[in-house]
Structures
1.
Amino acid sequence: MPANKSRVEDLLDELARGARVLRVFSQLGSESFPVSNAAHHVLRIVLRQQPIHAAAVAHYLGIGPGVMSRHIAELESAALVQRVNCSTDARRQLLTVTETGEALIQERDRIRGERLTRLLPDWSDERLDEAISILHELNDAMGRGVEEAKSGAEVATGGEAK
């Protein structure tokens, strides 16, 4: 049975509210960190999947190459990532996280994790797993919707996405 339209709208409202709150929550106490919250998220993805091509990170996050280039420039200028040559294709460079970058991630994640843990004292591992699973499913579904919309835009414009 399809979801009730007003309930879907409620979900979208909560997701929008969550995005705003998460942005502010993630920045609390990080004023001394050398990069933006968005660049920090890119750094975490690189650490998890390194070595990785910048285009793969951009695709995973659903951001364009220009935005990705700005994040990488910010991370490089803070000496948090470095480019290494790809062993299978000399034309490509891959990103890896420096020791300084790993230390920054650990510290920032510790601060954010401790703060959220204090705010959710009654949440069990099972409840966290359920929340993670639901958010993962929502992100995947919305990501597919973005890809479908981009594909539709390419068809509508004769193959050129806008």
2.
Amino acid sequence: MNTLTNNGFSVESEVQRIGGVRIMDMAVVMMGFSALSTVSRVEILRLLAKEAPPEGMKSGDIAKRLGVAQNTLSTQLMMLSHARLVQYQRDGRSILYRVDQENLQALSDFLLKECVGLPRARPTRKAA
């Protein structure tokens, strides 16, 4: 058993490996794909992955960049967080959001290896 931490909550999860690749629990996989089923959530994830500093981006800044109402954005960020694709942390009165690289990579690996039959995806490096 492994303890995965997501936004302060601990979740007991059995981590299995096939050929060195972590196989995610099917419920987590489905939550991840479901979270990526809308254009707005994919746009949020892309913005965070490509443009957010390592410590994360404030929700107000995300809303401005994407032209989304704050209450709508909060709902979308909550869904991405529950799917373990986005992490958040409080910074004073603000909340900073960032991509959960490990879980996003695991979701990508699952899709490529288990569904398509391709070798594991290589991690991409953020341009300096």
3.
Amino acid sequence: MSPVKKPIVLAIVLVLVLAASGIAFAVVNAAERDAAPDVAAAGEEKEEAGAAIFPDFTVQTVDGELVSLSDMKGKPVVIGYWATWCPYCVDEAPAIQALYETYGENVNFMMIDLVDGEQETVESGSAWIEEQGYTYPVYYDLTGDAAYAGSVYYLPTTFILDAEGKVVVYSESAVSFAEVSDVLASLLTK
């Protein structure tokens, strides 16, 4: 092979390998998405009766106590995934506090800090909650179990479950007091 053709052939081979890798990545991601719980597509909200039961998961409190979603059955549940480095999560937190103050006796709240051990830690999350004066229940997902259960790829992500654990609302963006309040009021009158 001539010295001029060799780099061209290598470049073509490299392009083919990269293309094959991209196709393989897309196929694997599609398979993972198909295995995810039945929730709305990115950016959509889901409000429909008879939705899927949310998968159980276990998180821990700041004191290390393990708590499972299945412990919350019997009341509606607001599950909120967040992190201190997420500006939309920070903006949403006052509404979550107001919702907790309004509905906390009749609705379970599971505000789940997605801890990675570097950018987000139990210490940084709990310190931020304390500095802000928030009193809603905060749990820490140290294993990714809770994020996997909800197929969480964006923050903030919020699910509202009915008393049986069925998904009533799903949102991959910050929620407002009014939006969530309307849903909770409806669930509590059923």
4.
Amino acid sequence: MKIKRYILLLAMPLLFILLTGVKADAHVKYTTTPKSLRGTWGEKGGQVLRIKKYSFHVIYKKGIETNSVYLSGKKISNGATELGVQSPKSKYSVYKRGYWDIGYNGSCFAFYLKRVKHNGRTALKSFTPQMGPKTKVHIDYYYKK
């Protein structure tokens, strides 16, 4: 009789959980890039931008040397992803001229990009702000590959 009572006592919480349908939210919100900027874009100087739904990849080519930076919107460390994306309409956006701020989350490594038509072709316009009194604003164009 005592054994049946103990089994019933242990089974009650399990039965309660099964009947109430406790749900655990295991979905993690990933950082996504804007659809208008996705694709492979190349610059005349050899720099290539590969923008996918959850990643941003910059490939620097100079002669035979190649360096690259890969940022993932899925990799999570300390509750944040590597990839940071700011909308031009965000209240935190530094440049509100239609440029998306894409780069390493929480750092100064960022590209300010916007999709434009340049020389009759679709291009990404990259805006590099003035960093000091002796520097100028720098603009690059990356064409769709």
